[in-house]
Design goal:
435 residues; alpha+beta; 4-stranded mixed beta sheet; 28% helix
């Protein structure tokens, strides 16, 4: 992937209606469940990102026919629960951590061996928190000292387990539930804090008997999935950058239509409101089992808060954007209970702390969070560490910095947010690629 650097400068007040791409988490899951369902499923609002395309390519490699009638649309010809075919070639997940972890659970119950690989960034991400509980179900998965590539051994009889997650993670929960489809008996997952329940909702929509409530999910193996159509809502994680940007740029007002408002995903919305943000929800409705609404955000002076730890699991992907809001708010913001940020695409606590200090912010790291003292940001050059959310967050910082903010190596933004540059500049950003 070619290197791509950005320069972000103060622009105009942000105005307009911005339709952000489809939800990545829903897009991944819709592909996988449609692939092993019986019949044809149509997915609308599909995220045309590199991560989700990588998952589609892996499923095609496993014998699933996937058509693209138009951009943002997929027709998946389901092969049934036991219809996947093994591939002699490695299955390349690219930069998709969600794709790799969920596919590991799906492939653990197959009758063939699989090798999952990823790019340089994904190859540094820990996988034992998925492979260890899968092993307790009877799976055999070889890792490279806990890291990818993953060699998933087929023909292993799986059995259901009752598993209490040591750290709340929707990806780990989902991997175990997917393996549970192929397991004898009951698989029950208990979380220390509730996480997003996309997999549970979608399994129910595809007709699999499952019971779930916040913090708990339970299913039995041996049933089947029925093809269904899925309308993918706009991705809240992508909307997050606009929510923060319009909140901190004076005179701004943005509308973000049809955003997914799964309660296990919208912690940032509550956090920003606690900080004084002016965000309203219009036209609330349900689409494909998921709550959806139009978000309207207007500029409002923000103040620091002590972030309730109960919100942390519901905003784990949005913390880089929150760090920017906290850095320009009045007063200090204390974040605790977010140790998972250290094992995302980058160590997001350390990466954001280094970048914000470069721009003149005062921030103190802790093992599971940070204390951010609000103030003004200056010009500077920051590293993304190949983390798409870091890159987009510092693009927001450039809107209110005293001078240009250069963000180095933003090539991975396309993994989650294709067309980001054009969309942000269309509503008032001044973001450019630089040599």
């Amino acid at each position: 992937m070619n290197r791509l650097d950005w320069s972000s400068r103060p622009g105009q007040p942000l105005h307009g209606s911005v339709r952000v791409p489809g939800d990545k988490s829903v897009s991944h899951r819709a592909l996988m469940l449609a692939a092993i369902a019986e019949g044809d499923s149509r997915i609308r609002g599909f995220l045309e990102g590199e991560d989700t395309r990588a998952t589609a390519a892996v499923l095609a490699q496993l014998g699933v026919h996937i058509e693209t009638p138009s951009a943002g649309e997929r027709v998946v010809r389901g092969v049934g629960l036991h219809g996947l075919r093994g591939s002699s070639q490695p299955l390349d997940c690219g930069n998709a951590g969600t794709g790799m972890r969920l596919l590991t659970g799906l492939l653990a119950g197959q009758a063939f061996d699989s090798k999952l690989i990823g790019d340089a960034s994904l190859s540094k991400r820990p996988m034992r928190r998925v492979t260890d509980p899968l092993a307790s179900m009877g799976a055999r998965i070889d890792t490279h000292d806990g890291l990818p590539p993953l060699q998933v051994r087929g023909r292993q009889p799986l059995h259901g387990i009752r598993y209490e997650l040591p750290v709340a993670s929707a990806q780990v929960k989902s991997a175990l539930l997917l393996a549970g489809l192929y397991a004898a008996g009951e698989t029950e997952i208990i979380e220390p804090h509730p996480t997003r329940d996309y997999t549970e909702r979608m399994l129910a929509a595809f007709g699999w008997p499952i019971t779930f409530e916040p913090g708990r999910a339970k299913l039995e193996g041996g049933h089947s999935l029925r093809a269904t159509d899925v309308d993918v809502p706009a991705d809240f994680s992508s909307a997050a950058f606009f929510l923060v940007a319009a909140s901190i740029v004076p005179g701004s007002e943005l509308k973000l239509p049809a955003v997914g408002l799964n309660p296990r995903r919208t912690g940032l919305l509550q956090a920003l409101r606690l900080m004084g943000a002016d965000i309203t929800i219009e036209n609330q409705r349900e689409s494909g089992g998921e709550p959806v609404g139009d978000l309207v955000v207007r500029y409002a002076p923000l103040h620091g808060i002590e972030l309730p730890e109960s919100l942390v699991p519901d905003m784990i992907d949005e913390f880089p954007a929150l760090f920017i809001a906290a850095a320009v708010a009045s007063g200090s913001t204390l974040i605790r209970g977010a140790a998972e940020l250290r094992v995302k695409e980058s160590d997001r606590i350390a990466t954001m702390a280094v970048g914000l200090r470069t721009l003149g912010a005062a921030i103190e790291e802790t093992p599971d969070g940070a204390l951010i003292h609000g103030g003004k940001l200056g010009a500077g050059s920051v590293e993304s560490h190949l983390d798409h959310r870091i890159a987009m967050s510092f693009a927001v910082a450039g809107l209110v910095a005293a001078g240009p903010v250069r963000i180095n190596d933003c090539s991975h933004v396309a993994t989650s947010f294709p067309g980001f540059l054009e969309l942000v500049n269309g509503c008032g950003f001044a973001l450019r690629t630089v040599a």
